């Protein structure tokens, strides 16, 4: 599959990275000679963070090409995403050029504010043009607001939503077009209030950021606005909340539509405070700090199958069937070493090696059909014994893979050898014995025939492999 990305700035670069890391070939067109350097920098960040969200290996990365003309970029594209600067006349010119070559391809715009009917004006084929508004960093945040106009082709829009899901995004379909869609209306309201607070000398940029990140920003990231306020109404819920805080809206606490004058004085005040607050980091450093924090948040939400984490789980589930079943060297999981995994010795703490092994054995169990539905039916595999060997030091940010070899298996027992590796070099091995149990009875019992069929197929394929030299090794034994 080929995506054409027109405009390779902050957002175009993010789209390119998301498509590439999900296995699409990508052609970028941007007349700025510096665009390839900037996209490479975005791609480097994306490679560090996006794979760490996934428990199923991402497909092989697609090919990136910088096209020398817009026509070359869009020729043969299955999907086109326009991310040029936010000017309607420029976007119209770009669409005219695109649709001379590719009039039928889906043509999404990253526009933060324009309505699709504005974008479609004068187009060769308005029906294929729509808004697909992403959030920065596009390669990590799942939301894309998908906004059609009455002139858009509904079947094409459904196809676009499938494409976005296939690259791990959450398409939020807006039923009516509106300036700035849904999310940017909030962002703008908050932004306007913040500018007033700085201009009026009430708060600095740093104090405003603390007000967000120490409190309500954390709530919004996992429950949004209405669910959060429902809880704030206590046991009486939303009705009590509205009765208590509804009247404040008329006082008013906010300046609403009043916009501060963007004169040099205000720009210097905000830019100066922002330099004092964050100028000790480069933008690239801030991006990497942001990305690693986002990976941490998103992984927690994924563990809880909640909010944006649920989107990540669904993306893994959709790719799980494509994982090679019989190849013992193929990684079953990928992990990135997160800040909270580092101990006082400055490397990954020992319990995380067991965690990496558990993620790997869980992946094997899902492959053979001993998944969460199977567990809900009252059967599971329990770990009876684990032997861990620590062979290397995993450090913050390292990308680890987990692969498994089945050493032996019968109706009740599963004996496996797992290798946790960095850049193909083992940092740990874990040998494990798992027992199949009837959970209600608290006793071992034979696994279901369908599970055994899959398990024995893997066991028999792995029987041809050399037995790992360290299998069966005990503490205190000589070097193996
Ligand atoms: N920066 C942000 O936070 C977000 C921006 N957006 C939207 O994404 C779009 C792009 O914004 P950014 O990436 O931030 O801007 P940017 O300024 O980083 O990138 C725009 C790119 O478009 C290129 N360009 C200009 N004319 C072109 C042409 N004729 N053909 C191909 N490329 C051309 C420029 O060289 C530049 O690299 C805008 O519509 C914006 O509203 C959407 C979500 C978030
Ligand atoms: C500031 N902005 C309007 C360009 C922001 C967006 O469109 C979305 C985002 O990523 O915040």
Explain this structure to me?
This protein is of the alpha/beta class and 480 residues long. It has three domains: 2-180, Rossmann fold, CATH 3.40.50.720; 184-280, N-(1-d-carboxylethyl)-l-norvaline Dehydrogenase, domain 2 (Orthogonal Bundle); 326-464, Thiol Ester Dehydrase, Chain A. It has 16 helices and 14 strands. The protein has helices at 10-21, 35-49, 70-74, 88-101, 116-120, 154-166, 183-199, 205-223, 226-232, 237-245, 264-278, 283-303, 308-320, 350-367, 372-376, 449-462; strands spanning 2-6, 25-29, 64-66, 79-82, 107-109, 129-134, 143-147, 170-173, 333-336, 379-390, 399-409, 413-422, 425-438, 443-444. The strands form two sheets. It has an eight-stranded mixed sheet with strand order 3-2-1-4-5-6-7-8, sandwiched between helices. Strands 9, 10, 11, 12, 13 and 14 form a six-stranded antiparallel sheet that branches. The longest helix is centred in the middle third of the chain and has 21 residues, at 283-303. The two termini are 46 Å apart. The model has no long low-confidence stretch (mean pLDDT 92). Residues 182-246 form the 3-hydroxyacyl-CoA dehydrogenase C-terminal domain. It is an enzyme of class 1 (oxidoreductase). Keywords: Cytoplasm, NAD, Oxidoreductase.
| Corresponding CATH architecture of the largest domain | 3-Layer(aba) Sandwich
Order of helices and strands: EHEHEHEHEHEEHEHHHHHHHEHHEEEEEH
- Give the CATH level 1 class of the largest domain: Alpha Beta
Average pLDDT, all residues:
92
The ligands bound in this entry are: 1,4-dihydronicotinamide adenine dinucleotide, ligand L46V6VHR
From the 3D structure, determine the CATH topology of the largest domain: Rossmann fold
Main sheet overview: 8 strands, mixed
- The CATH homologous superfamily of the largest domain is termed NAD(P)-binding Rossmann-like Domain
Helix- and strand-based class? alpha/beta
**Strand coverage percent:** 15-25%
Q: Find the count of extended strands (DSSP E, 2+ residues).
A: 14
The strand line-up of the biggest sheet is: 3-2-1-4-5-6-7-8
Helical residues, percent? 40-55%
Low-confidence stretches: none
Query: What distance lies between the first and last C-alpha atoms, to the nearest angstrom?
Result: 46 Å
